[in-house]
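Readers of this paper often ask what the protein records in our data store actually look like. The remainder of this section carries one protein's record, kept here as part of the documentation.

:::
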Amino acid sequence: MKEEKIRIMSIISYYANQIFKETKKYEFRKSPLKESDLNKKIYIYSAKGEKAIIGYLKVKKVLLGTTEEILKKTGYDKRNDKQEIIDYFGKNNKKCYALELYEVTRLKEKIPLQELRKIDPNIKMPQYLKYIYPNHPVYNRIKKSK
């Protein structure tokens, strides 16, 4: 059986913690996610904070719309923190994406970037999404995480 590539998505720690608490059911992005990445395990790299892989999630579907449509489709139009989404996209953005999340899991032991750099000093974490293939030196370390 062919081994699956690892997907790593960068999410700011503040939002990653909301995802783990399940108060945030959508990840908002200015770029879509590929169809081939839907319903696959995507590891969460905590950017601007822990600088570690801290968990994983799956994306059920990708919603597309204007800023206003995305707010309505996700229920953020009724939330107190809707202004964060408006600030991120801009008030009249025509192409906004909301990734509907499920199977969100926090790792028992995070994988610090420092540890991965001991295996591959040149590894860089993504600004959005990165693939790690089975022949990459850190592949097995990430795969064995619990």
About this structure: The domain at 6-133 is CATH 2.30.130.30 (Archaeosine Trna-guanine Transglycosylase; Chain: A, domain 4). The mean pLDDT is 95. Residues 13-20 form the longest helix (8 residues).
